[in-house]
Specification:
The structure is a single chain. With about 110 residues, the chain is of the alpha+beta class. Helices cover about 30% and strands about 25% of the residues. The protein has a single domain, classed as 2-Layer Sandwich (Alpha-Beta Plaits), CATH 3.30.70.100. It is built from three helices and four strands. Strands 2-3-1-4 form a four-stranded antiparallel beta sheet. Helix 1 crosses helix 2.
């Protein structure tokens, strides 16, 4: 079952987000979609950073979070956070899923 994951990370900076996203392969010239990820968003919020993802399964998310995200967050001093994980009952995507189908994330300019 697909899941949504919401992270609201108080005290996280744009610089920390960019550093972590680069380390885990979500930004930069070699950006790629991790196995099981449906989509990823990252945006500033008052006093921190918000991430919202959709994953094909909780197992896919947990594998990526434990193996890649947690170590990168520790390396870059990201404040502790608790993910809100919930089942997705209905997920609609635009017909153009080129980025997801090719395993590449559409290029987005996000620099500190």
């Amino acid at each position: 079952m697909p899941i949504g994951v919401l992270l609201e990370i108080s005290g996280c900076t744009r610089e920390q987000y960019v550093a972590v996203a680069r380390d885990v392969g979500l930004l930069g010239p070699e950006a790629r979609t991790p196995p099981g990820m449906i989509f990823h968003t990252g945006e500033e919020m008052p006093g921190g950073w918000r991430v919202f993802d959709a994953w094909e399964s909780a197992e896919a998310y947990e594998t990526f979070a434990r193996g890649w995200v947690a170590p990168a967050c520790r390396r870059h001093g990201v404040p502790a956070f608790t993910p809100e994980v919930f089942p997705i009952d209905n997920l609609q995507l635009a017909e153009d899923r080129g980025a997801a189908e090719t395993g590449r994330i559409r290029p987005v300019t996000l620099e500190p």
